[in-house]
């Protein structure tokens, strides 16, 4: 990995020690999943669920798809209806599971006293687009339709996620607008994967990492978009898959967007925020200096990570009108 003088010293060791993930073939993808699973199992073993109720519910899948499991987290003893964050985990569309994201979801429940609907969407390449997005949209529709039963305030639904989960969140929000479906109060995007084309200064500058490399990005988009995908010049790519390809961003909900300085996705993130503003969508953009893709998760104790996490929680508090009188 290239050395970056601008990197926060608290983050450097984690960046240097992160293994290269070769997902080019079936064996490489299997090995990457095993490595991620091993790491996540150790992390999950350290999670405390004190004061948090966890219920697994099943949303009907769209079309012939199977049911979509949702891990519904709520603060113990807090009466509803509660605002809710529909949470979508990262992992490049090919790795990870919902519970991995509960390092953040648990903070949301405890700090804000709201519910989190943490979605177990299917992964590529076994299920390429639109399957994962269908799962996220089915979960959104279920949470809205069953809000009374689930103890959720259907007027205060946020959709958000990190990395690939952020891209899925943006695609879900676009689809909800276009289909006139669930009204979404807030969009929450952390280093979102928004564009398969990878043609920005940051994508070129940080092609060798930290963490996310250009080769890894190319492979995950190929796997997510499926065998018919011909590359960045493919004009058939749906904006629900790569939201940066959307030509119209008007009518979307207020948005909080996080960009990391040393991230290949940085410029895509900033450009998307600017385009939202130009479409008269209210946007709060935070670009964190010295950070890299996933640094908030990998080095949660770093001061930069603590600042970023506090900003995310405060943004959700404002976006879902918590501690204020909701209309």
TrEMBL record:
Gene3D superfamilies: alpha/beta hydrolase
InterPro entries, per database record: AB_hydrolase_3, AB_hydrolase_fold, GDXG_lipolytic_enzyme
Spans traversing the lipid bilayer: none
Molecular function via GO: hydrolase activity
UniProt keyword terms in alphabetical order: Hydrolase
Domain Alpha/beta hydrolase fold-3: 86-294
Keyword Iron-sulfur: no
The organism's place on the tree of life at top rank: Bacteria
SUPFAM superfamilies reported for this sequence: alpha/beta-Hydrolases (SSF53474)
Protein name as catalogued: Alpha/beta hydrolase
């Amino acid at each position: 990995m290239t050395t970056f003088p601008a990197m926060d010293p608290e983050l450097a060791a984690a960046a240097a020690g992160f293994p290269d993930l070769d997902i080019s073939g079936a064996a490489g993808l299997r090995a990457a999943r095993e490595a991620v699973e091993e790491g996540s199992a150790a992390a999950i073993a350290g999670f405390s669920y004190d004061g948090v109720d966890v219920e697994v519910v099943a949303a009907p899948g769209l079309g012939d798809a199977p049911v979509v499991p949702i891990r519904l987290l709520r603060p113990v003893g807090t009466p509803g209806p509660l605002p809710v964050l529909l949470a979508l985990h990262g992992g490049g569309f090919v790795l990870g599971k919902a519970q991995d994201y509960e390092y953040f979801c648990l903070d949301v429940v405890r700090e804000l006293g709201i519910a989190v609907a943490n979605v177990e969407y299917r992964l590529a390449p076994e299920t390429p687009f639109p399957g994962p997005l269908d799962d996220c949209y089915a979960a959104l529709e279920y949470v809205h339709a069953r809000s009374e039963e689930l103890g959720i305030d259907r007027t205060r639904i946020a959709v958000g996620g990190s990395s690939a989960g952020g891209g899925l969140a943006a695609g879900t929000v676009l689809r909800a607008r276009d289909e006139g479906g669930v009204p979404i109060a807030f969009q929450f995007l952390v280093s979102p994967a928004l564009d398969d084309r990878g043609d920005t200064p940051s994508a070129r500058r940080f092609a060798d990492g930290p963490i996310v490399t250009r080769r890894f990005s190319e492979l995950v988009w190929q796997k997510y978009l499926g065998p018919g995908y011909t590359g960045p010049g493919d004009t058939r790519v749906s904006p629900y898959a790569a939201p940066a390809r959307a030509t119209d961003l008007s009518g979307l909900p207020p948005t909080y967007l996080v960009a990391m300085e040393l991230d290949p996705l940085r410029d895509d993130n900033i450009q998307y925020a600017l385009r939202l503003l130009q479409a008269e969508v209210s946007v709060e953009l935070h670009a964190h200096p010295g950070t890299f893709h996933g640094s908030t998760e990998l080095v949660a104790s770093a001061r930069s990570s603590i600042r970023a996490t506090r900003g995310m929680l405060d943004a959700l508090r404002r976006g879902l009108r918590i501690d204020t009188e909701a209309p």
